[in-house]
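Long-time lurker. I teach an intro course on protein structure, and each term I like to show students one example going from raw sequence to a predicted 3D structure in token notation. This year I'd like something fresh instead of my usual example. Would anyone be willing to generate the tokens for the chain below so I can use it in lecture? Attribution to the forum is fine with me.
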Amino acid sequence: MFHRLLDRRSVWSSLIGVVAFCGFGCWSVQPCPAEIVAYLTPSRAATGERFETDLVFSGTADAVGDLVEWINLDIVKSTINAVPLTDYGRVRFDATARFASWFDGRQFGSGSAGFESQIVLESFLPNPPVPYEITSTDAFEIGTLTFDYSGLGLQPGDTISLDIFGGSDGSSTRTTSVAIRPSGTSLTTLVNPAYTSASGSERSTFTIPTAIPEPSAALFLSLTLLGVGMRRRRSLSSR
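-- Reply from a regular --
Happy to contribute to a lecture. Here you go:
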């Protein structure tokens, strides 16, 4: 895990993070019966040539009382018309108020080679650290991803898929992973999220809509058609 963190931060700030995690307990990767469920909500159009989707987590019943301490998010499997996305800088992440202190503002596309598709949220960024306790099985929103597709020349019916499943980097977890500290333990566990929610999955797909006339243009068209209809009626009544 820490090779991901070292790539994103200076050695000094990384050491601070390690110390903070040590304060929570020993770092360990091991099986955990509880699950963190993650999903992206259905996409929605936003201002301009953009669309949005929300990143949402929930815990299973066995996860109630556990602490979420760290999130690594990877959109490497995202596509445009089934072609892999390469310009990750088109995707912006905005954390919710609860997780804003976890996010250092480093956006997708800003990492070094091999890490451009990833961002990190860390509970030890504030002082003192503020992990998130799972108090119920209710969903909780982490943030919003916004995709800017302007200038790509996409046509109505073309599709963009944002995907947070992540990939393999040789470790025991994928590149989208979550660190949790199970209730009553001092061990932090790195896990792959599950994507079993009925509210969404690891993928949110947006279809480019058919262009809608501007209101002024639509109004002009309506008035024109109304005028033509009135002239026709007058012409018929005068015969």
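Some talking points for your students: The chain is about 20% helix and 30% strand. The helical segments are 2-8, 11-24, 215-237.
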